[in-house]
Every structure is written in structure tokens, then in C-alpha cells.
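Anyone able to model this chain together with adenosine-3',5'-cyclic-monophosphate?
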Amino acid sequence: MTLEQFNTKKPLVKGRTSVSAEVYGLFNKKGQFVPKVYPKSQDIEHALLNKLNESFMFRALESSEQKIVIDAMQEVRVEKGQVIINQGDDGDVLYFVFQGSLDCYKLFPGQSAPTNLLTYTPGMSFGELALLYNTPRAASIKANEASVLYSLDRECFNNIVKESAIRRREKYDSFLSEVELLQELEPYERSKLCDCLVSHTYAPGSYIIKEGESGDTFYFIESGKAYATKKNASGQQETVYEYENNDYFGELALLKDIPR
Ligand code: CMP
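re: yes, here you go
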């Protein structure tokens, strides 16, 4: 597929907005941000909240902030084959996928055709880079089927989500770039991984993983030390590995689908 095939653009966001007095009051104290409110049914609000809670960038928000984000989201229905984002364009909204599926393509320097990078499905979001870093769209997004998206405007994103997302990506990016296992990742893949990291603190002597448990988490050591112990032939716990900053563990249960 070539880039020209992406040039069937349609205005995507339209409709009326209103302003909630309650949040207006709240935010007017902080500055001049007046969040938009696009009224929705309770069912849709509930479904959006569930989807937001699957999204790493948004589930860290306070529930009052999630409510502001949900109110400010605007439904966008797209047809099969429609281009939602065109690489190189300016962008001022981010999209959540509510229903359907969309492909992400990127034309890399020196290539004549874009590369298909990933498929977006419900619960995923795209279009955040232009808002986070004020850059042109870094890839193109095209609908594989009729899909329902919710757009979030730049102003709401900047006021509610941006700072914590940037802080988080900056905080973990330098850390993850030191991890040997992740050296092959593209910067964008690493930044998405930053969105997924959750920091936990463990008291000295406490267990993070127990031998024999089933596991679905992979751990990096941000700071501190940990020990891996294993029962030896005589039933005694024996230290088999010591971990410190930037080390990782817990990958075997995930890679091989076996108990810890
Ligand atoms: P944005 O640049 O605003 O618009 C295109 C979107 O594609 C981008 O934000 C990301 O959300 C998404 N995307 C997915 N994979 C990549 C990638 N490898 N590089 C850049 N953008 C990507």
C-alpha cells in the first residue's frame, strides 16, 4: 500500500458542546480551562469508563478526572477504509477505539510504501504523540471496518492527562533504555511500555513471587535488591540469583506459560 491511498480525508469531529457548571467552577480556579461536555447515555458512560480503565494512560487518573475526560469525549463513526489520521498532518485530537478495528501504517525514510505496524481494537487509543509533543502525526490510521471511536480534544488532554503521561514516559524511559533485554525496542515501543509500568514498593524480606504460583507479571528493579531462591534437593531454600537496579525477573512464566 502506498501513502496516497490515505488521502481520502473527511472532517471527523462535529456536533454541539456544552459546559458543566460544576467542572467549570472547579477548573476556573486553576486557570481558564473549560472542559467540553458531550452528553451521553449512562450505558455509554459506563462502557467508556470500563474502556478507560483498560488504557494505561487513563487508568492512573482520579475518578473525577476520568469523568471530565468521558464528558469531553465525542463520538466519531468511521467507515471501512476511512483514514482517520494521515502521517505528516497536524493533529489536535486523540482517539479511543470503542468498536471496530483500525490499522496503523508508517512510512519510514527511504521506504516507498508504508509499513503496517499494529492493529487497534476496542480499549486502545491512538493519536497521543501529536498532543504530547506538538509534532506532526507520526503514522497513519485507517479503519479496517466500520468503527466507533471517541475523540478527546487537545485542551482537555493537556489539562487532565498530558503532564502525568509525559512525566511517566520520561521517568521510565531512561530506566528502560538501560535494560539489556529491551535494547532492540524502537523508542515508540519503549514509550508504550512506560505507559504499562506500575511502581510497587516491597518491604525488606517480603516475597514478590513464590515458587509454583502461576504468574502474569514481569518485574524490573527500579531501585533496591532482590534474591531468587529455589528449594534444593534436601528441601532447603537456596539463593540462586541476586538482582539489583535495571535487572528483571519473572519473564519465564510469561514466555513459557509455566508456573513460577
Ligand atoms: P500521532 O503521531 O499523534 O498520530 C499517529 C499515531 O500512531 C501516533 O500518534 C501513535 O498513537 C500511533 N503509533 C503507533 N505506532 C507508532 C510508531 N511506531 N511510531 C509513531 N506512532 C505510532
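Residues 85, 91, 104, 106, 117, 126-130, 137-139, 186, 188 surround adenosine-3',5'-cyclic-monophosphate (CB under 6 Å).
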